[in-house]
Amino acid sequence: MAHATLHPAPLGFTDGQLEALKWIGMASMFTDHIGRHLMGMPHESWAFIGGRLAFPLFALVLAVNLAREGDRAERAARTTLRLSAWGAVAVLPSIWARGDPMMLNVLFTLALGAAVCWAVESDAPPWQRALACLAIAGASWFVEFGTAGVFLVAAGYLWCTQRGAGLAVMVLVLLAATAWLNAMFGGWASFFSTLAAVPAAALARQLPLKMPRLQLLFYLVYPVHLAVIGWLKTL
């Protein structure tokens, strides 16, 4: 989900494996959106539970791509702007499909996570970076998956770039917080389906997956599929 680069991905992932995880996340998200927003299934349904795999996979792919070698601050800033722009494109389709104008879509969640990564790597004065993190934390209340989701991206990024047991624990705590948020709506099955992103990523890392990187298609598919759901709901 970050800009293409020749630098290898951290944690031993190949580009094909990351692309496969991204599209597995998309399939999970489609299951949720079609089931709940188009077919009217409740949060306790299999559609919502199956959709809980999507966000942690998106967060992982984004964190790993941002952690590639090179100018990480520039990459994070560029990715923040791109995700924000496409998030803005998806605002009206998202409201049309979901009927909820209060919560900004997941592209903004990922954009805020990338912005935290920029604050970590930026050469800006510390007070400016601290102020940016405070602003991001405040904005996280208005996006899908909230504060835990935003900082899950940043924690994953830090773990990729710095490693350490403490950072691994931070990732797990934020993933568990995201799972708990999902469980508040969909029960314990949603909690465990969120955590299932960990074995899914571990399995993908062992498979010889080869997929072309279709970055623009990912950004186009997100608002388009929401617009189609919104249009079908009017029929």
Can you give keywords for this protein?
globular; 12 helices; 235 residues; single chain; disordered N terminus; mainly alpha
Description of the molecule:
With 235 residues, the chain is mainly alpha-helical. The chain has one domain (11-234). It contains 12 helices and no strands. The chain has helices at 15-38, 46-51, 54-66, 72-89, 91-98, 106-121, 126-139, 146-162, 165-186, 188-195, 197-206, 215-234. Helix 8 packs antiparallel against helix 9 and helix 9 (165-186) packs antiparallel against helix 10. It is globular.
Overall pLDDT confidence:
93
What does the largest sheet look like? none
Structural domains: how many: 1
**H/E element sequence:** HHHHHHHHHHHH
Helical fraction:
over 70%
What are the low-pLDDT stretches, counting only 5+ consecutive residues below 50? 1-5
Count of alpha/pi helices: 12
Number of strand segments = 0
End-to-end separation in angstroms reads 34 Å
Provide a brief overview of the structure.
By secondary structure, the chain is mostly helical.
Topology:
Layout: H1 15-38, H2 46-51, H3 54-66, H4 72-89, H5 91-98, H6 106-121, H7 126-139, H8 146-162, H9 165-186, H10 188-195, H11 197-206, H12 215-234
